[in-house]
Amino acid sequence: MKRKVLAIIVPALLIAGAANAAEIYNKDGNKVDLYGKIDARHTFSDHPGDDGDETYVQIGFKGETQITSDLTGYGQWEYKTYANDTEGAGDKSFNRLAFAGLKYANYGSFDYGRNYGTVYDIEGWTDMLPVFGGDSYTWTDNFMVGRTNGVATYRNSDFFGLVDGWNFALQYQGANESGSNNQEGTKNGHDSVRFQNGDGFSMSTTFDFSSAVPAMQGFSVGAAYASSDRTNDQVLTRGVINTYGNGKNGTVRAGGDKADVWTLGAKYDANNVYLAMMYAETRNMTPFGDGGIANKTQNFEAVAQYQFDFGLRPSLAWVYSKGVDVGVHYNSKGSYLTDQDLVNYIDVGAYYYFNKNFSTYVDYKINLLDNDANFYEANGISTDDVVGIGMVYQF
């Protein structure tokens, strides 16, 4: 019986991102849950940037207060700090999430702060690997594809209580432009074009067939779209950079006025089986290497996992991203733009759950990028394999 209970609990923990939160206060309609984890991790690779200690601590809380019978206030904060350097090495801590909002009956919820972009509603289905994954086009603080600043989010579950399983979300993000040029959003602006964004919006919708079609128990589909203005600095970076090979090759940065992404996804989560896949395209949005911004990317991710009753959860995945017209090549007839694979790897891993609070894992990233291509060397893109192992205590 204990093993069967574990097989039910573990998938829920993977999706939630935290194990049983500890309820530290619950009185008069006010509730606060505390959660956290210590991930003792080490990665091994021939690439120096991927080799070494990656231990970190993560902690957060979720709170809510019942204002009226229909109106609820809520908030969430999540913080992460690395423990893989000397005590005098400087700050390696940051806020992952920090937002507050209101929920009114079946009319939905509205919150503002640092939160996940709604595009991640679909990407999160394949971002389930022990160490790697979810990185074909998803970068933190890159418009609304992952965690990001200054987003106002409206969410509605079961379509106003009328259609079980149909959820949707709408989101707006304010500008985070360069702090040195007196542009909009300079309170949280960043001089690096990598972390800037103009005003933008996103939306997502998902449908879980479990209630509507019992024969399709555990099957869901979803889609998301986002579009943002690019900042002046981002638009002006267009040009050839990272010239290499005696001036014969280089990289092109995107220079369009808009950054866009759309994605489609599907997942199956039932009977101890987890299967998910997604396809996405981005334009003038996705960073790569040391400083490139791709004109266009085509991205695919797929993952398969199985939860054994005794705690083992093997995982197999493929993560792929192709950049379209991101390279420039010269021959006797002149120059032309070329496509390049930006991310391409097979991932083989496994979790082992001793109980709901303690687990261990191993993850092997088999890099399929061509290690002979000087495009990757010039742009600082690793073509080496990486292995990650670790132990996790979580509550």
Automatic annotation (TrEMBL):
Gene3D superfamilies the record matches: Porin
Taxonomic lineage from the root: Bacteria, Pseudomonadati, Pseudomonadota, Gammaproteobacteria, Enterobacterales
Cross-referenced InterPro entries: Gram-neg_bact_OMP, Gram_neg_porin_domain, Porin_dom_sf, Porin_gammaproteobac, Porin_Gram-ve, Porin_Gram-ve_CS
Matches recorded under PANTHER family: OUTER MEMBRANE PORIN N-RELATED, PROTEIN YDDL-RELATED
Keywords per UniProt: Cell outer membrane, Ion transport, Membrane, Porin, Signal, Transmembrane, Transmembrane beta strand, Transport
Protein name: Porin Gram-negative type
Molecular function per GO: porin activity
GO cellular component: a single term: cell outer membrane
Keyword Transcription regulation listed: no
Protein topology in the membrane: Multi-pass membrane protein
Subunit structure and binding partners: Homotrimer.
Pfam family, one: Porin_1
Compartments, record wording: Cell outer membrane
Presence of keyword Ion transport: yes
Family under the similarity heading: Belongs to the Gram-negative porin family.
Primary localization: membrane
CDD domains named in the record: gram_neg_porins
Signal peptide, first to last residue: 1-21
Any one biological process term the GO annotation gives: monoatomic ion transmembrane transport
